[in-house]
Known about the structure:
Elements: E1 2-7, H1 15-31, E2 36-38, H2 61-73, E3 76-83, E4 90-96, E5 102-107, H3 117-120, E6 129-132, E7 135-139, H4 148-156, E8 161-166, H5 173-187, E9 190-195, E10 197-199, E11 204-206, E12 210-212, E13 218-221, E14 227-232, H6 235-244, H7 247-250
Parallel strand pairs: 1-2, 2-3, 7-8, 8-9
Antiparallel strand pairs: 1-14, 3-4, 4-5, 6-7, 9-12, 10-11, 12-13
Helix pairs in contact: 1-2
Amino acid sequence: MKLFCAQVASVWEDPEATLEKVEPCIARASRAGGDLICFPEQFATGWDPESTLHVQGIDGPVTRKLRSLAEEYSIAILGSIREESGAKPRNTCMVISSGGEILSTYSKCHLFSPASEDMYYSRGDDIATFSLGGVECGLAICYDLRFTSLFRLYADAGVHAVLVPAAWPEARLQHWELFIRARALEYQVYVAGINTTGITPVDVYGGGSMVADPTGGLLVRAGQDISLISCELDREYVERVRAALPVARDRRDDLGPSHEKKPGER
Length: 266
């Protein structure tokens, strides 16, 4: 499966302008034989942990436009929105097939409390997977990278790759690379981090979108500027890595706190 990561800067709080701006990326990825193009977290508006502007249903204006573009250019698209959901919206990403159908949706499970995202958004409670080109994929969003338990769920579900749209700040880019490579190595999956770039009212972003392979090595990495990077994801390679080093098979799930014997106890 040929994956493209579109490292773009949003037109702040202007979904229509952003979608017009990124259409050439979709066209370029399609011409290059891409199966899937992924965009950063809340790319249509820019990520803001407090803003609830442009909140919409899962098939609202942004998704409808992405469905149209996916069909027009015959390429699957990963995008994200501020999804309408009860009292508070959810930070949701979706994957749309090359035929314009929604393949999967995922709402961010771990909300970024240091910036009060948990005060303005409601968290998701489920993992989400889909299959494309024979590759089983899972979805996560930005801060989720810090929580290894989520990636273990995906590994146990048999995925070959986890796609992570993000708005990861420049100040913590060293953590970004560390987590992407560690999660890939720990769970023997591809991990693709699709980051934003540029300056917004919320923070400064330094790009660095990258894809790590199941050994933790980097296949491709973007610089700081707007860019489009690509690589191939090969399920057979994942299976060979797992067969050569069967970490999941050797994992012990029966461990717990030690019990110290009291004096005279046998």
